[in-house]
Structures are given as structure tokens and as C-alpha cells.
Specification:
Elements lengths: L1 E6 L3 H12 L4 E5 L8 H5 L1 H19 L13 H25 L4 E5 L2 E5 L2 E4 L3 E10 L3 E3 L15 H4 L8 E5 L3 H12 L3 E5 L11 H13 L3 E3 L2 E9 L2 E8 L2 E7 L1 E4 L3 E3 L26 E3 L2 E3 L10 H16 L15
Parallel strand pairs: 1-2, 1-6, 2-3, 6-17, 8-9, 8-14, 9-10
Antiparallel strand pairs: 4-5, 5-6, 7-15, 11-12, 12-13, 16-17
Helix pairs in contact: 1-8, 3-4, 3-6
Length: about 350
């Protein structure tokens, strides 16, 4: 029997493993290949998007330079750019996660999907079962798919699949004007895609200060991105080689066409398919696991990272993972402090 079984190998799960390893626990980590070891940030979030944004900025500034006597032109091979992104991600996976875990003699990594059979036993991919004294659930989050008519019938994009495209679409509609939505909007726009953003609220990035929202709206609009606030997409359908999108803009129904549609309407905690029915665990409205101030969810189970809900930030997840890893093993119990959380 393991002292600790960690389900998930993202920022929270990895930090939990590192801390519990320091405390000499015998640990099993179970992680699937949906994203990969390291979680969202290194695989399909901060790292690849900033890599692509940096390249797109070079292209954008070269096109817009206004110095007399300089005639600049740019061309790029997007397929090769994506290959460079993939190489960077793979290198970081190997160096920062695979090799680090490999050097921890008291941590075993198993790849697959874990489900609880009881509060003391899990099964991986329906085959191999493992027993643990204590558990940390750190399964992260995934794109929330809104209940829009026709959406499940089309080949929509998420942050994962958008980063796998081998060519830039001629046009892209983004559903959601939060941080993720506007980041992808600028990224693809600067690579030459015609981008439109729908946001239900009256401002983009509505969680930020209104001055920031207003400035960013103008800044992105000046770059040629169409931003429609107080808008709600009601229907999506395939139409020839494009998507036909029906939306209500301040109550008025309008039709739009787009080659691709990216869903960026929020995140949902990955708490399904874990066999939680066998446990005394409470879930919130968006599937998040409810924990106390010590990140404890039930008698012998803790949870950390996006799976416990907002704020869904990589740095917060890592801190939560460290605290959960400590609290499962040490008598020196620590609380998670959410009062001051810097973000960019």
C-alpha cells in the first residue's frame, strides 16, 4: 500500500509529489495523456501561447514599422513554427518533469485514467488496481462547452486543438472574451487570421478593472480584431466550407460566417469519471471539489489545483499542491491563503 496516491500530474500534482517526497512518503502518481505531464501551462497554456505570441509580435511589428528608409517584408512557415513550439514543449516536459520524477526514488509514475473503487483503492484504465492510505486529487480542468444548438455537430476548437493546427485559418470566431479568448485572438490575428470575439458581458476580460478592459478593447480593435460585447451565440451549423453562426447582439439576431470556431467560454473542473460516488466528497456548481482551508475533501482525501475551482492559475495550483502534499504527510498542517494572488 502506498502512503500517498496522487491523481494528476499537472502543476498541483507535481508540486504535491515533490513536497511529499521530501517528507519521505512512498508515492504513486497516476496521470493520463490528455494533456501530458506538467499540465496545462507547459503543454497547452502559458508556454506554447507565449512562444507563438512572441513570434507573431515580430511579424506584426515588421509589418507596421514606420521608420523612413526601411522597406520591411515578412513571410513565415506556420507548420515549422508549430514544430518549434512542439519541440520546446517536449524539451520542457522531459527536462522539468519526466527527469525530475525519474530522480525521485520514492515516486512511481503510472500513465492512465484512475477511478476510485473505494476510499482506499483505485483502478487505472480498468485494469490494474492500487491501494493507498491517502489521496490527492489534482486532475485539473478542461474547456466548458456551452449548450449551444448545433455545437456538438461541428469541429470546434479548444485551447488544446487550436495549438495543434498546422495552418492558420482564414477566419476565426472566438466564443468568450476572457483572458484565454483575447490571448488567442491576438495570436491568430497577428498571423493574418481575421478574428471576431463574442463576449456575453458588457466588457472583455470582465474580471479585470474596467480601465484595463476598456484599454484592451481599443488596443485589440485597433489591431483589426472585431469585438462584440453583450452578445450571445445561439446556434452554429456547417454551411458549405464555413460555419454559419447565429448570435444575438444586444437583443438583435445576426448571422456570421467563419472558417473556425474556438470555445473560450470558461473552464470546468475535471471531477467526472473519477468514481467519486464511492466517496464522501461534495461537488460545487461547476464540478469543483469542495475542500476546507487545509485542502481536505474528506477523511483521507485532499484536492488541489483547478479541480477545486477558481482561481485557476498555474502558480496557485502549484502552491495548493505543495500544501496538500505537506498536509497529507506532515503533522505541521498548513492553510491555503487566497488573500493576495498576483496575476498577469
Amino acid at each position: 500500500m502506498y502512503d500517498l496516491i496522487i491523481i494528476g500530474g499537472g502543476a498541483a500534482g507535481f508540486a504535491a509529489a515533490m513536497k511529499a517526497s521530501e517528507l519521505n512518503a512512498n508515492i504513486l502518481m497516476v496521470n493520463n495523456d490528455t494533456i501530458g505531464l506538467g499540465g496545462t501551462c507547459v503543454n497547452v497554456g502559458c508556454v506554447p501561447t507565449k512562444y507563438l505570441l512572441n513570434i507573431s509580435k515580430i511579424i506584426h511589428e515588421a509589418k507596421l514599422q514606420k521608420f523612413t528608409g526601411i522597406d520591411s517584408s515578412t513571410s513565415f512557415d506556420y507548420t515549422k513554427i508549430i514544430e518549434g513550439k512542439n519541440l520546446l514543449v517536449k524539451t520542457l516536459q522531459d527536462e522539468k518533469y519526466e527527469k525530475v520524477l525519474g530522480n525521485l526514488s520514492n515516486v512511481k509514475l503510472v500513465k492512465g485514467n484512475a477511478q476510485f473503487l473505494s476510499k482506499s483503492e483505485i483502478i487505472v484504465d480498468g485494469k490494474e488496481s492500487y491501494k493507498g492510505e491517502k489521496y490527492i486529487i489534482a486532475t485539473g480542468s478542461s474547456t466548458f462547452i456551452p449548450p449551444i444548438e448545433g455545437l456538438i455537430k461541428i469541429d470546434y476548437l479548444t485551447n488544446i486543438t487550436a495549438l495543434q493546427l498546422k495552418r492558420t485559418p482564414s477566419s476565426l470566431t472566438i466564443l468568450g472574451g476572457g483572458a484565454l479568448g483575447v490571448e488567442f485572438a491576438q495570436l491568430f490575428s497577428r498571423f493574418g487570421t481575421k478574428v471576431r470575439v463574442f463576449e456575453m458581458m458588457d466588457k472583455i476580460v470582465p474580471a479585470e478593472e474596467p480601465e484595463i478592459s476598456d484599454f484592451l478593447h481599443k488596443y485589440l480593435s485597433d489591431e483589426g480584431i472585431e469585438i462584440l460585447v453583450k452578445s450571445k451565440v445561439t446556434k452554429v451549423e456547417n454551411k458549405n466550407d464555413n460555419l454559419r453562426i447565429t448570435a444575438k447582439i444586444e437583443g438583435e439576431e445576426k448571422i456570421f460566417n467563419s472558417e473556425k470556431l474556438l470555445i473560450a467560454a470558461g473552464r470546468r473542473s475535471n471531477s467526472e469519471n473519477l468514481g467519486l460516488k464511492h466517496l464522501d466528497i461534495e461537488l460545487g456548481r461547476k464540478g469543483e471539489i469542495i475542500v476546507d482551508e487545509f485542502l481536505k475533501a474528506s477523511d483521507n482525501i485532499w484536492a488541489a489545483g483547478d479541480v477545486i475551482g477558481e482561481p485557476m492559475l498555474e502558480t496557485v495550483a502549484a502552491r495548493e499542491g505543495m500544501i496538500a502534499g505537506n498536509n497529507t504527510i506532515s503533522d505541521d498542517q498548513k492553510k491555503m491563503d487566497f488573500r493576495i494572488i498576483p496575476h498577469a
